[in-house]
Amino acid sequence: MLAPPVCPRFEQAYLDVHGHIVDNHEYRNAPRGNASRECLGHFDPARAERGTIRGDLGTDSLVAARAVGRLVGNLVHSTDEATATRQDFGTWYGALHRPAHPRDPHPTLEALMATPVRRPLPLLATDQVAAREPGLASVIEYRKSGLSLNHVVGCPLDCGYCVRHVFGNFEMKVPRALMTDEEAVATLTGHHYFRPHRTPLQIFNLATDPMLPVVKPHTFNALRLLDDQGLTNHVLVFTRWRVDPDDCAILNSFRNIKLTVLVTHSGITDPRIEPVDSAIAATSLRTLYAHAENYRTVLYWRPIVPGLNDTLAHLRQARELAEHAHATVFTGLFFRNEIAAYYDAHGLPMPYEYTARRKIMPEESEERILGYFHNSTDTDAPYGALFRKTSCGVAYAHGEPDYNGHYGIRELCDICPVTQLGRCARSWREPDAMEATREARALGATGDVEVTDRAIIVEGLDEEPRYHLQHGFGYQCHDRAKPHHYRRHGRADIGWSVTATKDAATP
């Protein structure tokens, strides 16, 4: 790539990041002289200023490179005349330096960017962490599907509906580590809400994609560190990126943790909303399912939006993909204010008039999905392995009862396979009211604590302590002030008829 006055060469990047660089830094049109260098940033990415290519997108540091005696991966290299160009190419790709790609001493840009980077991501300095959003400094977040570990932050995939909008890290396009994998896993297993062999766990689901080339080594290392402790907790890994047979071999090597890889597939074709071709996720799903031995794979079909990806063609595609998964979970759009603001700023069509605290999954879309998947000739599983809730699909894939206690919300179970209903029925037990009250009070609950045949009803507890109670008892735990309405359990009211508004969650 040679075009005076600047000759950039990508040392490591994603294909999608390439487009991000062009759009945001416009290095191809940079003026001559120092301004071109200023656009690239300091040659040491760790010292480059924000707003430059290396400062925003570099993942290496001179200190890390010198520690192991290699060249620094400074993302972009530039020269201002032909002689220097030949000399620099000799340095980077000549006999004195190992090839950047193991099979090709002069790789194409695409091949180079597809090569996994095996060295650890550079750690953000303490002052860099402190300068970012307050929530990013915490690497543990408790979600309904589990205690979530997020010590690598940053993703270039730019999905318009991504939950990272809500957690304040969407503008971080290059993955950066907040701490080492060892420190992160120790923080996770030392967390006051962690229970060995019981608390479900998630890896990198709020901050990056765990299968991106530079993130993948950290994903595998975190899984290894958990597995080596003999832990048998459920561990969930969500991805929409490429997974190959070599990755599957590593995933199969874990012997203790109950590992599930959930492949996010939307089928949305509008690149402004879904810039990642859904065919990538579809291929990864098939690969994962074909090689699965010690892990399970789930088709995570989301976000379903009426008129956007619930057409007959989308339903047909989803049902075909469901044949390549141990279970399928369908869910709607998490349309919070932050995501609505992103849609508005980028001129995207608003899917709904209002935002909501919970995911929006309209009744009409659900009925279309259930109608298409229904097979009356299958008496055990008339809807196949189709589930409304993530934990239900994960548990079924491993042949276990749901760890979130959804069996108490019986209208959720009307599509479950008969064998799974039996598992959940045998394990579901209503908690002792005094014990539930004692534990809720210890977590800070105020007011009355009530145990119904559907859930533990509490007051004064945020989401995290409620999830802790829920996973501890294997029984739903609800906030009295935010009831779960009949049939819309855990979903927003938007898109549901008046006849479905009765509240069966609280008296």
Structure description:
This protein is of the alpha/beta class and 507 residues long. The chain is built from 18 helices and 13 strands. It has an eight-stranded mixed beta sheet with strand order 1-2-5-6-7-8-9-10, with helices on both faces. Strands 11-12-13 form a three-stranded mixed beta sheet, covered by helices on one side. α9 links the parallel β5 and β6. The termini are far apart. The N terminus and C terminus are likely disordered.
User: Would you count the extended β strands for me?
Assistant: 13
Quote the average pLDDT.
80
Q: What spatial order of strands do you see in the largest sheet?
A: 1-2-5-6-7-8-9-10
Individual helix count: 18
Q: Taking Cα atoms only, what radius of gyration do you get, to the nearest Å? A: 24 Å
Q: State the helicity in percent bands.
A: 25-40%
Key descriptive features of the protein:
eight-stranded mixed β-sheet, single chain, 507 residues, 13 strands, globular, disordered C terminus
Task: Give the arrangement of secondary structure elements.
Layout: H1 15-25, H2 34-40, H3 53-57, H4 62-67, H5 82-93, H6 109-114, H7 126-130, E1 140-143, E2 146-149, E3 152-153, E4 176-177, H8 181-189, E5 201-203, H9 216-227, E6 234-239, H10 245-251, E7 258-265, H11 278-291, E8 295-304, H12 312-322, E9 327-332, H13 337-345, H14 363-373, E10 386-387, H15 390-397, H16 418-427, H17 433-442, E11 446-451, E12 456-459, H18 463-473, E13 477-479
Parallel strand pairs: 2-5, 5-6, 6-7, 7-8, 8-9, 9-10, 12-13
Antiparallel strand pairs: 1-2, 3-4, 11-12
Helix pairs in contact: 8-9
